[in-house]
Amino acid sequence: MEGDNSSACLMISEYQHIITFIKKSLSSTTQPEFKTMLTAMLKKTKPYLNEAMKCDAVLIATILNPSFRLSIFKVSFPSHYDYARDLIYELFETQNAQVNIASSSSPDESAELIGTKAKATNLDREDYIDFFPEKGKEPLADELSIYLDGKHKLPSSEASQCLEWWKDHAEEFPVLAHLARDYLACSATSASVERCFSAAADTCGGDRGSLAAKTIERCVSSHQWLVQGVEPDESFETAQSIITQAMEDKAYEKSKSIPDDLKE
Question: Most CB atoms closer than 10 Å: which of 10, 97, 193, 234?
Answer without folding.
Answer: 10
